[in-house]
Amino acid sequence: MNDFSDRPQCFGILGQVFPVGGDGLRHSPEECMACSHKTECLKTAVSEDGGLQVAEEKLDRAWQARRIGFFQRWARKKSIHRQKKDQGGKTP
Q: Angle between the 49-64 and 70-86 helix axes, to the nearest 10 degrees?
């Protein structure tokens, strides 16, 4: 699967291959399930900034569900924002 020319245009684009649904969770669209590139595509989509975004979303859901405390959330968010900064990404 090293031939990049046969990849679809949506390959690795987090918002297209793993969008946030109406329930606030991320779901892969039905058309992605039949794609032969789905595993590599999702891995690409959640790597680097995409992965940090997904991690931050999971952290926020854990906080809202009261599964983690304030300081644990704060420390993890700080770590995520530091990683984003190190990668040249923008922090909100």
A: 170
Place of tokens 């987090």: 14
Between CA 54 and CA 81 the distance in angstroms is: 13
DSSP code of 6?
G
Give the start-end residues of each E strand in the chain.
none
pLDDT tens digit sequence for 47-80: 867 889 999 999 999 999 999 999 999 999 999 9
Report the alpha-carbon distance of residue 32 to residue 83 in Å, rounded: 29
pTM greater than 0.85: no
